[in-house]
Design brief:
Layout (H helix, E strand, L loop, with lengths): L1 H14 L11 H12 E6 L17 E15 L4 E18 H11 L5 E10 L4 E9 L7 E3 L6 E6 L6 H9 L20 E7 L2 E8 L5 E7 L6 E9 H11 L14 E8 L2 E7 L11 H14 L5 H10 L3
Parallel strand pairs: 1-5, 7-13
Antiparallel strand pairs: 1-3, 2-3, 2-4, 2-6, 4-5, 7-11, 8-11, 9-10, 12-13
Length: 323
């Protein structure tokens, strides 16, 4: 049946028969169907990625953006990476590849001998899900170096304040001003995070200092003097992007003890094979209540990432952080 559909729609396109019995045009629909059946989604994570040695094999393909696949670990084989079943998150790129180019990619990957092609659910940076072929290593990885990613260094940056709201955080990455606040210059790499997750932090959040950007009110800090719990949002970004965010949070300077509001980079362990980090001040800041618009921004960020929480639960959480 599928074969008949493909043949029929291909013939219609070839003969330019795009109109129905009433003269209505179905050209766009026919083009979409033909495009769907003439391409395959392929997730790449090594030498086929943009800027790498074998990217020429994708010269006829369309990049659909950065993406991730779960349930694998990556190892450095030498000239190329290898992924095998595991418990990490693999960062790569998703491509729509013409059907006629698939055979050459299979040959490059040694499909069936060096790698096996599997179909997995791949997640785009915007949260969209799609089915794509992924090449899984068939060799022995014993003794090989396990690596978090190929070509780029990624880590999870966790926000627990206004950057929990995606729109606000992206002002740091792409540049801009959030609702009339001061302008933030863009990061050198304006690529969006490849993944976003709601997480719990093992410390309490409180409001302190006097922020000119928020009408002299308090802003979010972590109390790292003892255990606690705070809501956070983790963004999987490059190490260079994280360094840019740290400077933006610390008055344009690298975090260092004794200088700035967010002088301390806090190591929160690992998640999905990547290091997890956030920033705060190692000393407790003077307590100061937040402004209504700052609370609204935090509330929107929590609601965006914790959809199971009611408005009352969000309000109770934020009120519990006021000391």
């Amino acid at each position: 049946m599928i074969g008949g559909i493909i043949s029929s729609f291909s013939e219609r396109k070839s003969d330019k028969r795009f109109k129905g019995m009433w003269g209505e045009s179905y050209e766009s629909e026919i083009e979409e169907v033909n495009d769907y059946f003439s391409h395959r989604n392929v997730f790449v994570y090594g030498t086929l990625m943009e800027g790498e040695s074998n990217h020429r094999f994708l010269e006829n393909s369309t990049c659909l953006g950065k993406a991730t696949v779960e349930g694998y670990d990556m190892y450095d084989v030498g000239w190329y990476p290898a992924i095998v079943p595991g418990d990490s998150l693999i960062v790569g790129e998703l491509y729509s590849v013409p059907l006629e180019d698939i055979a050459s990619i299979d040959m490059l990957e040694g499909e069936g001998s060096l790698y096996a092609k599997r179909y997995e659910t791949v997640t785009g940076f915007d949260g969209s899900k799609s089915l794509a072929s992924v090449y899984i290593y068939l060799g022995d990885v014993s003794g090989l170096e396990r690596i978090p990613a190929w070509g780029e260094e990624y880590l999870w940056y966790v926000s627990y304040g206004s950057n929990m709201l995606y729109e606000r955080f992206m002002c740091y990455i792409k540049g801009g001003s959030y609702h009339g606040s001061r302008y933030h210059p863009p990061c050198e790499d304006t690529t969006s995070p490849v993944a976003v997750k709601a997480v719990d932090l093992p410390y309490s959040m409180y409001f302190g200092n006097f922020s000119g950007s928020w009408h002299g009110s308090g802003v979010s800090f972590l109390d790292v003097s003892g255990p606690g719990k705070a809501l956070g949002v983790a963004y999987l970004i490059t190490k260079k992007q994280f360094e840019h965010v740290c400077r933006k949070e610390n008055d344009g300077r690298e975090p260092e003890p004794g200088y700035g509001w967010y002088e301390d980079v806090v190591d929160l362990g690992e998640m999905d094979g990547f290091k997890v980090k956030t920033v705060t001040n190692r000393d407790l800041r003077p307590y100061n209540a937040p402004s209504p618009d700052y609370l609204e921004t935090l509330s929107d960020g929590i609601g965006e990432n914790w959809p199971e929480m009611s408005e009352e639960e969000i309000r109770d959480y934020l009120e519990s952080c006021i000391r």
